[in-house]
Amino acid sequence: MPFSVDHLAELNLLTQFPMTSQQAGLKVHSHEADPALVAAAQRLHEKGLISQKDGGYLTPLGSEALELSQKLAGILS
């Protein structure tokens, strides 16, 4: 299954979360951010990867997804 444009937007947003601390989050400002980024945040929230529809914190599943996405990016680099 190829990555869709939506998947790539979600992965790119996911990799912007800090991996070093679960106390650090991310805020996607809907009035300033690219609409694709806002939609990606909403989808990540619906999938249970982030705590809020506009960012927030990574959930345990989100932390796992971030770790795997960084591994994949390293392999492909």
* Poorly predicted runs: none
The proportion of residues forming helix, as a percent range, comes to 40-55%
Taking all Cα atoms into account, the compactness measure Rg is 12 Å
Q: Shape from CA axes?
A: globular
- Our measurement of the CA-to-CA distance between the termini, rounded to an integer number of angstroms, reads 20 Å
| Beta-strand percentage range | 5-15%
Q: Total number of β-strand segments?
A: 3
- Tell me the number of structural domains: 1
- The total of helices stands at 3
Give the mean pLDDT: 91
Structural class: mainly alpha
Tell me about the biggest sheet? 3 strands, antiparallel
Polypeptide structure, described:
The chain has 77 residues and is mainly alpha-helical. The protein has one domain. It contains three helices and three strands, in the order αβαββα. The protein has a three-stranded antiparallel β-sheet. The mean pLDDT is 91.
SSE topology:
Blueprint: H1 5-14, E1 26-27, H2 35-46, E2 50-52, E3 55-58, H3 60-76
Antiparallel strand pairs: 1-3, 2-3
Helix pairs in contact: 1-2
Short description:
With 77 residues, the chain is mainly α. The protein has helices at residues 5-14, 35-46, 60-76; strands at residues 26-27, 50-52, 55-58.
Keywords:
globular; 51% helix; 3 strands; single chain; 3 helices
